[in-house]
Each structure stands twice: as C-alpha cells, then as structure tokens.
Amino acid sequence: MKKPSFILVNEETKTFTNLNEFDEKKKRFKGEYSLLHNQYSDDHVFLSLFLKENQEKPLMVFNSQNQQYRNVLAHYNRFLENDIPKYIEEKIQQKHSFEKDVQMDRNLGQLQLSIVQQMVEKQLESVRNQTAETASDHQVLLGKELSLQWVLHMMNDVIHKGNL
C-alpha cells in the first residue's frame, strides 16, 4: 500500500503547502516536490515559510486518502509555487558545488601525499648511499632504511585507498 501524502491548508486564504510523504527514518516530511527536477526539497523550508506566513490563522492537514485533499489540489493555490523549482535548482547546485569542493580537497591531499612520498623516496635513497664505518652505524642506517620503507609502504596504501 502506498504511503499517504499530506498537505497543510489555510482554508481562509485558499492556499496550501505540500508536505508529501512522511519519511519514517528521518522523522520528517519529504517537503515540496519539483516536477521540473523530479525531486523533493527534503527539508522544512516551505513548511516553515508557510507557517510564518499563516501565523495566528487556523490550518488543517489532509492526507491523500481524504476527498478534501483532492479538492484542495484542484481549487486552491499552492504556496510559493513558482519558487519551488528555483529552490530545488539551488539545492542541486549547492550539492554539486560541495561535491566538487570535496573532490578538489581529495585531489589536493593526493598531490600533497605524492610530494611527501617523493621526499621520503629521496631520503631513502640518501640513506642507502651512505656508508657505515662501524657495525653500530650499519645498524642505525639499516633502521633508518627499514623505517623509511615502512613509511613509503603506508603512504602507498593511503594513496591507493584515496584513488578508490
């Protein structure tokens, strides 16, 4: 059975806002819907504006299983109807911008890791080219080489996981 949709109505001004289905996981309504973008607002912006605009006025809620619901949709004015597609478009643009910023940060992090990796590789090569005069010097150089190899291995893992 399909979940009912809801509208909030001001009978006095013959206006309504579409709450749509109630999302049980998020514990809120899906919000206004844009046919142009085939997407819900998924927030309370239009509900909040409707409530602010209609303060101290009686409001009624109808669900889609009620005859009055269909009557309201057919004869009443949808609150801020022309602003809904613009708002959804802005939300889509903000989401794309955020995703682009995250990707740019990720790429910058990968570049920084690559630079540090090259620096560690040069340090490792420098340690390998050093000659040990005593057995203890040899142990110290071996320890440096092993630690730098471990660092390079860990960096390669991080870089590889970042590219997934």
Verbal overview:
Helix 3 (83-129) packs antiparallel against helix 4. The longest helix is centred in the middle third of the chain and has 47 residues, at 83-129. By secondary structure, the protein is α+β, with helices and mostly antiparallel strands. It folds into two domains: 6-81, no CATH class; 102-162. The relative contact order is 0.11. It contains four helices and eight strands. The two termini are 40 Å apart. The strands form three sheets. The chain has a four-stranded mixed beta sheet with strand order 7-1-2-8, sandwiched between helices. Strands 3-4 form a two-stranded antiparallel ribbon.
Uncertain runs are none
Supply the number of structural domains: 2
Q: Distance between termini?
A: 40 Å
The fraction of residues assigned to DSSP E strands is: 15-25%
Given helix and strand content, the structural type is alpha+beta
Compute the average pLDDT: 94
Order of helices and strands: EEEEEEHEHEHH
Gross geometry: rod-shaped
Q: Please state the CA-atom Rg, rounded to the nearest Å.
A: 30 Å
- What is the strand arrangement across the widest sheet? 7-1-2-8
Counted by DSSP, the helix tally is 4
How many β-strand stretches? Answer: 8
The main pleated sheet reads as: 4 strands, mixed
What is the helix fraction of residues, given as a range? 55-70%
